Amino acid sequence: MSEVSFNWPRAVLVCVTAALFCSYQVLIQGAPALMVSPLADSLELTMTQVGLLSSSFLYAYLIFQVPGAYLAGRCNLRVLLVICYLVMAAGCYWFSVAETMLSASMARVLMGIATSPSIVVSMTLVSRWFPEKWFPTLAGLVETAALAGGALGPVIIPDIMALGGWRYAMQWLAVAGVGLSLLALLFVRDAPAVEHSGRGVSEERQYGQSSFPQLMKQGTFWLCCLYGFGMFAVLACFASLWGVPFLCERFPDDHSYVPHTIFLLFAGAAVGAPLIGFRASVSGRYRQLMALSALACMVFTGLAIFLPCSLVTMGCLCFFIGFSSGGYMLVFAAVKKVCSKENQGLGIAVANGSLLLGGPAMQPLVGAILNNSLQHSGVLTVTDYQWALVPMFAVQLVAFAITFLLTGIRGC
């Protein structure tokens, strides 16, 4: 497709609608972080159980990550998008009427399964509707759209909960899912009438069919995934669940402003991811930027956890934590360099799954440490939260150390 015949308005409309899928996914994923106390009271849960309930979404997401990538390569993306939206909406409604942890967990699992193709669907539509040269920039903006969903949650969900509680808020999220499914039905098309850049739908539909055994033999690939796990942990664990109760305990007189502080963390990541990616594209120094991002994220996280400060200062620290954690985006660029061409599709899917592994791995761990402290003292203090969040700081240290081992990445 030539630049002259390229339908920019239609391409933008299709890809924005698809990117909203990622925003909706992250919004739903982080919703329990804003409902910790009412969830625990309503369903009679311990802190460990709250962590397990929240992370059950991510367990399902991770298990179905590769099958989701396969579906994105084989199915009509418009139909897949509509079905996923509706299933996510059904999961939200089920969660809103759940009376037991088992029922609520099953609802979260259903949401996780439905969202598993989200990133791959969005990336595939971007590659089909835009000229190839725009793909790196637009892929970064898709990630920004996903993070914007996380930033939006702390702003709107508490206000909805104030009107009718956490169940009411989840029902409104279900309504939003139905509305988004209608947008997808109206505006999304699988591909333009004429493929551009010599790349057809048939080529895209090979996505996810690469050899998994070949991929498993590449040690550098798994180091990249481990780096992504460490960098994304602050978003998957702190921002998505334990950041709100920690800051509420830290600033007991400013509870109403705490969600806005978490918003700044997501906002920082939404700004940092495309800017760090752009810098890497210009300089080509992926490994150095990965190291710098990990070091900055580790320093700002340590300051946020242990430094006595005002809520305004904490907001600034959260923004810089988010900005520096945006270096996780470099994992996708590194994976493309590490993997052979036939393995790149599967590599991106697995790398994306490794980012979110921080949720199911770290959320219950932090919850278990807090629950142990609660059993001993009967009340959680700021110090209890600080020590419980140390593992999150530790995985960032591991991510920083890994950058010195990534010497096998070509051109970095």
Question: What characteristics describe this protein?
Answer:
single chain, 412 residues, mainly alpha, Growth Hormone, Chain: A, 2 domains, 19 helices, 0% strand
Major β-sheet profile: none
- Under the CATH scheme, the architecture of the largest domain is Up-down Bundle
**Number of alpha- plus pi-helical segments:** 19
**Named CATH topology of the largest domain:** Growth Hormone, Chain: A
Q: How many domains comprise the coordinates? A: 2
Q: Would you kindly provide a written description of the structure presented here, covering whatever features stand out?
A:
The chain has about 400 residues and is an all-alpha fold. It folds into two domains: about 200 residues, Up-down Bundle (Growth Hormone, Chain: A), CATH 1.20.1250.20; about 200 residues, MFS general substrate transporter like domains (Growth Hormone, Chain: A, Up-down Bundle), CATH 1.20.1250.20. It is built from 19 helices and no strands. Helix 11 packs antiparallel against helix 15, helix 11 packs antiparallel against helix 19 and helix 13 runs antiparallel to helix 19. About 5% of the residues have low confidence.
